[in-house]
């Protein structure tokens, strides 16, 4: 009896969980409770606030964007089920997605259903829309920012300049550090090849878990290897632990983190252990005073009316991701068929070196082409200066990487 | 007039065949056949979301049944089931991509490969029991996870492997509707095999090993053989489930097959009922539906409160996760014997109505 009741309650709940009648329906996946929640939360907040702001200020040429933020706890089957739920309820115009897992799993589905997928996974192979160099084409995948590989290449360029400036003698030694996992491994080979090209000696990679822990053993290996530059490919949680362990061990290597590897909160948590670390940033920081920050502060007030919260750089990237999609939708309204997935994709190619209106100085100028989804190849390198409670981050380098054809999708 | 559709109140069976029958009455058999027929008709009136939930229940259920044979019937333990599940997914994609084996064949072949692997990793079971065995299987989980991320030739390493859709007689079964039938076919076949296995000599040996290994050995059952065999068999199920999962998603990534998934499989069989074939399916249904139902609840709450604001999203996400945990704990407190026990109680309540004890 009781389970009959339970079952019928379950069925009703499953059936009634529908999105509101939509002008333009999009999906928004986020990880608020899973393994990558620490960086997904600010990013997802950026996307959601930006979409709410767009709706409150005229929408897409008058049409509102109907969306629902769904937490999938970084579990691929849940992301899959949610995708099916969305697509069977209404025709989605686009999806704001999240990490490596959901993005990779949905590549072929979104291509078949013609739904542009704006991810926060920046794997190099997603930049190859026609499958020219990688095994699998990703025609409907877009992301704002440099790919993981390009980010690492930018750091390599900075390291080469830094080595020269410091007057280092002989060949500098470069090491890749990260978990043996799709996300940290994504830039490993390609970035190593570029470091070699730039005259570095490549050491054997050192593995450290994505889960924070005690990494003194890894720091000892790093010390023994005599590495001069260490690229940290994990997310910020484990990177903080690593920095702390290496401070105890006393390594001399210069640490360089990828785009999810360090942020404002991470610097505070690491304290002086992160002093001097450099990492990739692909949008402004909260303290910046570029013209676009006025709009960002307005957007931020939607979920923080006091305006006191200092948003990490991930938040700004979330806003950029949402606004590029919005401008493409604006352009799609004039196309035959209106705001459909295929038209949004076509609209993404219309402009070159563009920044969404109002966000000048916040988002890097980006260009997407039908055969090249590398939005931007510009890499900003920031360096931390930490003394006691005083945390500063300054831009030390901006790399403008060439769009080499053999780098597409790698 | 006593019809054969009623169960006599007492043991009046006169042959072993009657004792081991799967369906006690013809009515029950008719119900089982009817529900399969119902499922065959299902794609014509269900949408893709509901079908994808059923497909998930299907491939997870097959893998969970394998674990139930190992844990529920043979009394062993495995914390590495997700590793085998993943191996099946990669193996099937690998057979198809590298050797051009058609997907329909690659899936059972991948399951056979996983069986071999399971027999290998099951060897410690010949000597270890209880917690020690749990740790040994734990090791297999980590070995396999690391292998997936490293073996570029097999799994595509960090970039993962593409898995082609099922192609049958030149007709591509790629959408949910097509794939639903593939999964349904394997669910029916594997659950029939599972139920029948327990009526065989080997199946009875498994149960004997579980109930009292010393007595089993005295009766002439080769403990090592049956323990390892049970690992192999459970890996076959896991491998097939994994292969279906891989070809359904179209892409296999080393990221998904973590220890958490192994524990989720254990959760399915404990909630469904250890040592019950039907219970496995119920437990899987419960574990797959629970997050979806909770998500539905969250989305209703959002539409009631209004708006998609980030603090609300975060708050509701935590409530959702906590409720999933709470539901499982409450379940274990109030129904430790699993859903199948509740099902049997419910059935006897109706059968004996109004003269229950």
TrEMBL record, chain A:
The GO annotation for biological process reads: amino acid transport
Q: Does the keyword DNA repair apply?
A: no
Question: Which keywords fit this entry according to its UniProt record?
Answer: Amino-acid transport, Signal, Transport
Q: Does the keyword Oxidoreductase apply?
A: no
| Residues spanning the signal sequence | 1-21
Q: What Pfam families has UniProt attached to this entry? A: Peripla_BP_6 (PF13458)
The organism's place on the tree of life at top rank: Bacteria
Q: Can you tell me which residues the record assigns to a coiled coil?
A: none
Q: Which family does it belong to?
A: Belongs to the leucine-binding protein family.
The name this protein carries in UniProt is: Branched-chain amino acid ABC transporter
Q: Which organism is it from?
A: Magnetospirillum gryphiswaldense (strain DSM 6361 / JCM 21280 / NBRC 15271 / MSR-1)
Q: What is the lineage of its organism?
A: Bacteria, Pseudomonadati, Pseudomonadota, Alphaproteobacteria, Rhodospirillales
From TrEMBL, chain B:
| Membrane disposition | Multi-pass membrane protein
Q: Where in the cell is it found?
A: Cell membrane
Transmembrane spans: 27-46, 52-71, 101-123, 130-149, 178-198, 228-245, 265-290
Ordered alphabetically, the record's keywords are: Cell membrane, Membrane, Transmembrane, Transmembrane helix
GO (cellular component) term, any one = plasma membrane
A Pfam family of the record is BPD_transp_2
Molecular function GO terms recorded: branched-chain amino acid transmembrane transporter activity
Q: What is the lineage of its organism?
A: Bacteria, Pseudomonadati, Pseudomonadota, Alphaproteobacteria, Rhodospirillales
This one is known as Inner-membrane translocator
Which InterPro entries does the record match to this protein?
A: ABC_transp_permease (IPR001851), LivM-like (IPR043428)
Predominant place of localization:
membrane
Q: Does this entry carry the keyword Cell membrane?
A: yes
